[in-house]
Design a protein that fits this description.
93 residues, mainly alpha, flat
Length: 93
């Protein structure tokens, strides 16, 4: 142990390392979608059901379709107002 490092500094470093490891573990668990603590009640009633047999597949969720882009024709006055707004905003940059 180096002579110039106090016990409080070593305790502080140990506490920071412990906090960093706990944060990293929490981040990894959160990104994986793990919810709750072992032994806690399930988040939903479906989670309490028995697991599916080994060969069974889950029902597929249909893909969501995205509606086509919408467009609206602008009047001449609206186009002029928009052009004026763009010129004003470009002048600020």
């Amino acid at each position: 142990m180096p002579q110039h490092v106090s016990v409080m500094q070593q305790v502080g470093v140990a506490a920071l390392v412990t906090a960093a490891v706990a944060w990293a573990v929490g981040l990894v668990r959160g990104s994986r979608g793990v919810r709750g603590v072992r032994g806690a009640e399930p988040a939903s009633p479906r989670a309490a059901t028995a697991p599916a047999p080994a060969g069974a597949q889950r029902p597929r969720i249909p893909r969501q379709s995205v509606p086509a882009s919408e467009s609206v024709e602008l009047t001449a006055a609206e186009r002029a107002a928009f052009a004026g707004l763009v010129r004003r905003l470009e002048g600020r940059g």
